[in-house]
Amino acid sequence: MQHAEREITEPVALCVEKGLLNPEAIGFSRHPYIQSNLTGHFMRKKKWNYWCVYGEDLLFSAAISHLDYAAICFVYILDYETQRFYEKQVTIPIGRSVNMPEQVLDSIKFTNPSMTVQTIHIQGETHLSVTIPDFDNEVLHADLHILHPEQDESLNVVIPKSRDLFQFTAKHHTLPTSGFVKIGEKRYDFNRDHSFAVFDYARGIWPRKADWNWAMASQLVRGRRIGLNFGGTWTDGTGMTENAIFIDGAMTKIHEDVLFTYNRKNFMVPWKIRTKFSDSVELTFTPFFERVATTNGRLFRTEIHHLVGYFDGSVKVQDGSVLQIRKMLGCSKEYLAKW
To answer: Which 3 state secondary structure label does DSSP give 17?
Structure first.
């Protein structure tokens, strides 16, 4: 059964008066038309800008988030071969100095003596720079240039739970990336022909407790830029999905819920990711690394099981053809929040 998801083709505000969801914003678009003008709903507004960059040797990730009462920034790295992993997180109570922009690609900065993360978007390119004086007892400096090809489409979708519980997310996939990440004396270079970034922008009004799944990959597969994006749990029952495939920048929207089947006692057991009613998506995700991230604050508690691994299987494209996926590097995660 496919959902009748409405396509939005011109700019629209996410909220109307009193911060309620604008009915005209419900739907999906291929470009970031939605303005995230969140207001009111004290303690319930949740905002984040998350970057994940797949290099040839290194996975590099940086995120700036705001929970309405605290700003949180984290950076982590995973060396595929050695499986060296390290993560650093900084929390600023209240976080008034961290301004989360209303437009998807607007510039953003988090600055603190322990960590500086900044993105500047100009002329179709995002410059992501990160400096951390003490990252596993070494200095980390990242300088990445992320290209947004002019013809590329992105997944932009508003998930409506109710007029005062909703989420807008923008997923930008297969963004060619160049630059470097340097940790101490070790330097990782990123080549635009083989390194790709994924950008996850989110703005919403959330309940006190929430959980969701997200699976994604952006790689060069047989000479084509392929992106996979699947979401579950939070979207169930809303009539909207976060499911799409990208081939050389063109998006096939999947108007059907996707089921995540995995072992919560052992997340390293292979996952099954499949469309609920059809064979449009039939994937197995086999992890080789598990990142567990927890926060326990006075006002919030989160638990993330973030797996890095390989996708195998098939997905159906808009023209009816079948895209075979073989050992495609990507991530899948479970996120539990009380915030």
So the answer is: helix
